[in-house]
Amino acid sequence: MPDFAGGAESPGRRKVALRNRLLAARRSLSAKDRAQAAAAVQAVLRDLVRAQAPTMIAAYVPLGPEPGGPDLPDVLGDRLILPVLRPDNDLDWVRYAGPDTLRPGPRGLREPSGPRLGVDAVTAAALLIVPALAVDRGGLRMGRGGGSYDRVLARAGGAFSVALLHDGELLAAVPAEQHDRRVHAVITPGEGLSDTADWTK
Q1: pTM, 2 dp
Q2: pLDDT digits (tens, 9 = 90+) for 65-95
Q3: Among the four given CATH numbers 3.40.50.10420, 1.10.150.240, 3.90.1200.10, 3.40.50.2000, the one describing domain 4-199
């Protein structure tokens, strides 16, 4: 029986159902659709990096059907740090030195090898690119449930944060819990860059 609080299903249970639906939709994308979506997202990111000229970028290596494509780090320039998952689900950071430095990590991740910079290294980033399964039109981000990027977003308060999505993952609302964090903008293949501040005016 569902766990109801105040007559409504809990946000946690709604998140699970929404995650399952979104993950299934991503798995159904063809290789061609994934490649076209990745190329569109990367083009918008290149323009954003040129416009902002950030002194440091924090990003990640997309896996499988995640938006952005597995070669995303190589389009972001040489001022880039990538995450390494710690046992407590927090993220350490390493300077990216090219595709040959990526190695298999836990949970199927691809992680950079090199000296660890510490969890606070992300505070030096001016542009923060994060994964998401969905974002609502107030900027509220929903991830996979591990809480890693909620910690990062809380820590990197000075960075311009951007979530990468597929078309159809920018929603009117997502289930919210107290620890969930917002992003400043999203990029989708079809709509390009959308600033979440514009949606709340």
Answers
A1: 0.90
A2: 999 999 999 999 889 999 999 999 999 999 9
A3: 3.40.50.10420
